[in-house]
Amino acid sequence: MKKTATLTTALLATCAMVLSACSSNSTNTATNTSATTTTSDTIPIGIALAQTSNVALLGQEGFVGARMAEKYFNDQGGINGTKIKLVMQDTGGDEAGAINAFQTLINKNKVVGIVGPTLSQQAFSADPIADRAKVPVIGASNTAKGIPEIGEYVSRVSAPVSVVAPNSVKAALKQNPKIKRVAVFYAQNDAFNKSETEIFQKTVKDQGLEVVTVQQFQTTDTDFQTQATNALNSKPDLAIISGLAADGGNLVKQLRELGYKGIIIGGNGLNTPNIFSVCKALCDGVLVAQAYSPESPGEINKVFHKAYVDQYKKEPAQFSAQSFTAVQVYVEALKALDKKTKVSTMPLDKLRTELNKQLLAGKYNTPLGEISFTPAGEVIQKEFYVSQIKMDPSGTNGKFVFLK
Ligand code: 1QQ
User: Fold this and answer.
1) Which entry of 16, 38, 109, 219 is 20 to 30 Å from 390 by CA?
2) Quick one: which atom of ligand 1 is closest to the CA of 190?
3) Ligand 1 pocket check: which of 141, 158, 379 to mutate, most ligand atoms within 8 Å of Cβ?
4) Ligand 1 pocket by Cβ (under 6 Å)
């Protein structure tokens, strides 16, 4: 036992000095956190997002944005000549999947930091693991209250519901100043949706409107007849939905099918073109607040926007812009750190700690505009937007039109 420990220590000391001598085979143990990055010629950044389950409707856009950032920043020379390498781990849609992905990225893939997970509900379980292991996590789509407060190593580039959601209520009132009676719907099994509905309900009251009914559902539900009928009985002239993509899209559809004619606001879980295939032509008109605009000025957004449109033939989604931004924050923080001490010579535990400090201190010109962080890791962002879904009459194609 003692002998193994000594050998490991010796090996680690070598690893710390000569990065290229250490393959992942020689350092691949769950308890080993003092080894440097696993290969000499790339710096691994972990991406833990949902590629499977219902949550993939939201997570896949994150993967796309992260990949675009990897290519863009590596083409620019990476970290002062060393390329980054994204290590993708699918979290699925639940907490266990996110915990698993985090543990693999931290202990096996030996990443310098993590982008993810997709849902706040997953972050409240998985982020504490990274925090305890002193591995930086940047949330790129976690918007619930309390995410940065999970720990010292947790920050986010996805602005919280408190600053994003109220914008859509104001936009609805602009379109129909006569709105008085508001029906609120939310998924009660999801941390983000509980947080978002609180903000929506507060905003409604602050605007002098009345919440006439609050209807609850589960993110896994597909049948909303009861909730929609209950809500219609209270004669609302605005409906506000906090759900995820599939459930949210189905609720929009069923509300319209039952004859609801007023404005519908969708929260951040409906902020994806992936809902078009769920509510089809009936998605038309839904208002969704945005933390990203494809038209945002700034060089890096022009580059990101063009690359995205060239590749996917449609406007970039908010979740893609946010995960691009999260990777950018790591790249720029690593570059700044590397100028002070070559990151390839730093032991992995030291690199993770220094990287976390560095990223919180920086200012970044991103596709989201200029951002920085509070000491707690909350994003400081200036511009927010509201979009309205425009579907073609066939219901197959649609887009988010940004309101002036
Ligand atoms: C959260 C969210 C979701 C809609 C992300 C996809 O904002 O879980 O915080």
Assistant:
1) 219
2) 8
3) 141
4) 58, 118-120, 141-144, 192, 268-269
CA–CA gap between residue 357 and residue 353 (Å, rounded): 7
Residues 290-346 pLDDT 10s: 999 999 999 999 999 999 999 999 999 999 999 999 999 999 999 999 999 999 999
What is the rounded CA–CA span in Å between residue 126 and residue 26?
27
Q: Are strands 398-402 and 385-391 parallel, antiparallel or unpaired?
A: antiparallel
On whether the CB atoms of residues 367 and 303 are closer than 8 A, the answer is: no
Ligand 1 centroid – CA 230 distance (Å): 26
Query: What single-letter DSSP state applies at residue 256?
Result: H
Question: Measuring CA to CA, which residue among 254, 258, 252, 257 is closest to residue 285?
Answer: 252
12: its two tokens: 């680690």
The answer, as to whether pTM is greater than 0.85, is yes
50-89 confidence digits (pLDDT tens): 999 999 999 999 999 999 999 999 999 999 999 999 999 9
Cα–Cα distances (Å) from 234 to 117, 184, 239, 251, 260, in that order, read 38, 11, 11, 17, 11
Cis amide leading into 347 (omega within 30): no
